Amino acid sequence: MKLVLTGGFLGSGKTTAIVHACQHLMAKGKSVAVITNDQGDQQVDSAYTKSLGINTREVSNGCFCCRFDELESHLRNLAEESIPEVVFAESVGSCTDLVATIAKPLRLFKPDINVVISVFADASLLTSLLEGRASFLEESVRYIYKKQLEEADIIILNKIDLLTESQRASAQSIIQNEYPGKTIIHQNSLKNEDVLAWIDLLDKFAFREDRDSLKVDYNVYGDGEARLAWLDKSIIIKSPLGNGGYIARHVIRSIFNSLKQQQFTIGHLKFFAQTDQWTNKISITTANTSADFKINEEDIKELRLLINARVQTDPATLEALIDGVIKSALMSEACTIITEKQSAFSPGFPIPTHRM
Q: What pLDDT does residue 290 have?
């Protein structure tokens, strides 16, 4: 079994790439699986991959390193049930230190699993960070971002289509100087040939015995995670007039616009809209200047909306902002909005199960 341990900061495009890779491999008759991961227990990514018919498991309420036993259990069960050739394990976007806490323990306990660490980075954000132009992330958050890249076997410069040719060349030069010896590929995860090139590289990857564990200051790492607020909220929109799609669209845009007005840094906003007829995933990151997306608005009387917000603020402020948006929608539209489940928090201090 090959385990593609997929890291990278919030909003770097990991899920999009994984889904397209799985679809390509499945079309070739290969058995694949995905293990999602999040600090919360209401994961848009899990709902999305399941809706596409991809064999999906999840590790929730903590990162892979702190819930290693649960990750190992999923790998064991997958091997017993379906023996997938490739498993994509997508670590939560605020997590680092994967070599010491995941790759090396798995090598000891599961030597038959070939682990490759692919770390995604939004090309324009990474370039601005390494050039010192980005001032919207706290220093401890930038620390996590850079440590993720430091331990990668493969660095994927993602969303490369948003850069000019000269910017691409500059990004490549900066990253090669910052992370010498790394395998670096440029990728637009919406292009088939780019995803196929990544798959081909993964297929050729041979396990590295010489991986070095990171030197990590866990106090800085923990502070970086604590700077981010997590909010998960599941709501049901009931509209007797049949405009549930319009209301969901209005709620999503209002959340984004309110965060921008407050000048909060968005790690990511993910929404999963679901009716009896269709599903729709919407992803927004700090790079977005507007909430530009499509959603079906035809005669929707009931719609379930799952919200995942990862924002650089405190949980109470984020919760109040999103609750305010929903209250405003209730006042302006003839609808009922029921909250099924909600949680708002900052991740706890990282305490890995193993560290080698």
A: 75
CA atoms of 311 and 225, how far apart (whole Å) = 11
Whole-prediction pTM value?
Answer: 0.94
Pairwise CA distance, residues 93 & 146, whole Å? 12
Domain containing 77 equals: 2-224
Residue 132 lies in a domain: yes
Say if residue 138 is in the same domain as residue 38: yes
C-beta contacts of 125-129 below 8 A and 24+ residues apart? 125/9, 125/11, 125/12, 125/286, 125/287, 126/157, 126/171, 126/175, 127/163, 127/167, 127/170, 127/171, 127/174
Give 53-96 as a 3 state SS string.
CCCEEEECCCCCCCCHHHHHHHHHHHHHHCCCCEEEEECCCCCC
DSSP letters for 321-336:
HHHHHHHHHHHHSS-E
Does 254 lie in the same domain as 208? no
pLDDT, averaged per 10 consecutive residues of the chain (356 residues), comes to 95 95 97 97 96 97 97 95 93 96 95 95 81 72 92 94 86 87 93 96 82 95 95 98 95 96 93 95 82 85 97 97 97 96 96 97
Residue 6: half-sphere exposure toward Cβ, Cα within 13 Å? 28
Summarised one tens digit per residue, pLDDT across range 193-226 is 999 999 999 998 876 777 899 999 999 999 999 9
Instruction: Please enumerate in sequence order all residues whose Cβ is within 8 A of that of 184, keeping only pairs 6 or more positions apart, or say none.
Output: 154, 155, 157, 172, 175, 176
Q: Could you give the number of structural domains in the chain?
A: 2
Q: Which of 171, 189, 224 is the last residue of a domain?
A: 224
Domain endpoint, select from 177, 194, 224: 224
